[in-house]
Design a protein that fits this description.
The structure holds two protein chains of two kinds.
Chain A (H helix, E strand, L loop, with lengths): L3 H21 L3 H26 L3 H31 L13
Helix pairs in contact in A: 1-2, 2-3
Chain B lengths: L2 H22 L3 H21 L3 H26 L13 H22 L10 H6 L3 H10 L2 H22 L4
Helix pairs in contact in B: 1-2, 2-3
The chains are: A mainly alpha, B mainly alpha.
Amino acid sequence: MVPINNYLFLAALLFCVGMFGVMVRRNALVVFMCVELMLNAANLTFLAFARQRGDSVGHVSAFFVIAVAAAEAAIGLAIMIAVFRSRGTLNIEEIKTMKH
Amino acid sequence: MNGELLLFWVFGLATLIGALFVVAARSPMSSAMSLVATFFFLAGIYVLLWAHAIAVLQVLVYAGAIMVLFLFVIMLLSLAEAEVSAPVLRFSWLVGGASTLGLLAVLGLAISRLPAQPAALGPAQQASFGSLGTLGQIVYTTYLLPFEAVSLLLLVAILGAVVVAKARI
């Protein structure tokens, strides 16, 4: 039987890889994909703790996270299409109208 | 080393390598394909955690629907020259790497103090834990209101996506 800590370490590593991508990458689409990676790391943590406690509520949480991620992807990609149409770029260093 | 542990290492390493490729790949298309692979291997990890229903949803919704959306947008926007990522040591790399390593250290310290062994499932629980029936029973009784709220959220997201992305309505 695999210790639950292994799954939690894997989730932590996955979250950190995603966070590093969000901070380093300059393409808004890739940043968005890294956010999806972080969401999946959170899901993995939910499922690991559900397995440890023998409690199915963690599965329900993961289910809702997946549903909200689908909504987030639809809205986020629509915003990216709108930004690309008005600016002609998805480089987040060139999109700084709201920067102080 | 038993079979479960071997499967965990295979799927876990493949997941991590896929995630690293998502961050390191030059073109957004390679990133998206690595992300699809990552989601598949992660579904394998979910099966090891007895979350069969969530693993199926992961493949259907994440690797299927959401990634198709990503691929459509990448092909629609033709980002051939958009990414010019010169691999120089920049300030964001230093800050990002330092904060990521810091977070990883804190998380690792916290996780290493947890009790390790999972609860032993009884025979009745073993038959039902993580199945679609159990998930549906909980979602449609205890969590009925959040479930309906999520369906409303998805409807609003569809409408919002159309309004935002369409040039002229």
